[in-house]
């Protein structure tokens, strides 16, 4: 069948069949299975939830920013996160799977709640640590994995988003270093406070078992496997922890404080790799 005839036949086919045709085409084109696309739908939906949380966090943080330039920069970050939501949602549309455009999993709501407490306490350092450092670090690990292991469309999109998230992390590192110089003790207290609230929530999402997401997406939770992305949970957790250690290091936090925090992560599944500098300190 010629391309034109195939397109006409596709247009005339019932909607269900049309959608199956498109899915089959993509599967052949990218040599990916249904399991792969279900996994990507799950990951993209959870990524969108993280982006929605980021939009809210950055927006809520604006009044705490000390200068007008800082406020403008923070609004820009919120705007970039909102573009990420639209990009991920349009990928779902192109690949013909459902993605959520709102937060579903409870961990995101928990982090949002802690972030709001920090705003109420006017603890700018805790806000920056939670959003710019911790959430961005996990976003970087996620988009890096999709860039490396995803199909060409997903990899290209992840690569674009990754550039923004790396920039957000750099902005956060510069901001935190400044605050650390002015008040090392206070900022280390904020780090400890934020770490124990946010890191267990973020780490618990490096998982293919969920609370409600698969039900909402109408996919079989038990059948999801990271093998479809040629990786596994342990590999991602190790990379996430190593990247977090690197972030804390770059922010100039005291290694004595951070080593104790990293150590505490073993209780919720964080096992640093042998070459992680702080973990072996
Ligand atoms: Fe983002
Ligand atoms: Fe970001």
From TrEMBL:
UniProt cross-references to CDD domains, sorted A to Z: Ferritin_like
Pfam family, one: Ald_deCOase
Coiled coil: none
InterPro entries xref list: Ald_deCOase, Ferritin-like, Ferritin-like_SF
Domain of life: Bacteria
Source lineage: Bacteria, Pseudomonadati, Pseudomonadota, Betaproteobacteria, Neisseriales
Species name: Chitiniphilus purpureus
UniProt name for this protein: Ferritin-like domain-containing protein
């Amino acid at each position: 069948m010629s391309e034109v005839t195939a397109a006409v036949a596709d247009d005339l086919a019932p909607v269900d069949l049309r959608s199956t045709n498109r899915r089959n085409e993509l599967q052949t084109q990218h040599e990916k299975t249904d399991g792969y696309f279900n996994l990507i739908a799950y990951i993209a939906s959870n990524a969108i939830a993280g982006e929605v949380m980021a939009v809210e966090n950055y927006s809520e943080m604006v009044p705490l920013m000390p200068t007008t330039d800082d406020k403008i920069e923070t609004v820009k970050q919120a705007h970039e996160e909102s573009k990420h939501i639209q990009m991920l949602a349009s990928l779902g549309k192109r690949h013909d799977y459902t993605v959520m455009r709102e937060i579903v999993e409870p961990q995101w709501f928990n982090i949002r709640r802690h972030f709001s407490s920090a705003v109420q306490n006017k603890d700018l350092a805790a806000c920056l640590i939670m959003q710019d450092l911790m959430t961005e670090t996990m976003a970087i690990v996620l988009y890096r994995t999709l860039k490396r292991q995803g199909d060409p469309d997903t990899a290209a999109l992840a690569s674009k988003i990754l550039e923004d998230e790396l920039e957000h992390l750099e902005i956060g590192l510069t901001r935190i270093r400044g605050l650390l110089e002015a008040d090392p003790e206070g900022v280390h207290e904020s780090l400890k406070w934020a770490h124990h609230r946010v890191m267990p929530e973020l780490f618990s999402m490096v998982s293919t078992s969920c609370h409600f997401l698969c039900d909402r997406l109408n996919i079989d939770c038990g059948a999801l496997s990271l093998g479809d992305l040629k990786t596994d949970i342990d590999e991602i957790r190790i990379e996430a922890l190593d990247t977090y250690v690197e972030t804390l290091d770059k922010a100039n936090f005291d290694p004595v404080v951070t080593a104790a925090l990293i150590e505490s992560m073993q209780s919720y599944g964080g096992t640093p790799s042998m070459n992680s500098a702080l973990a072996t300190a």
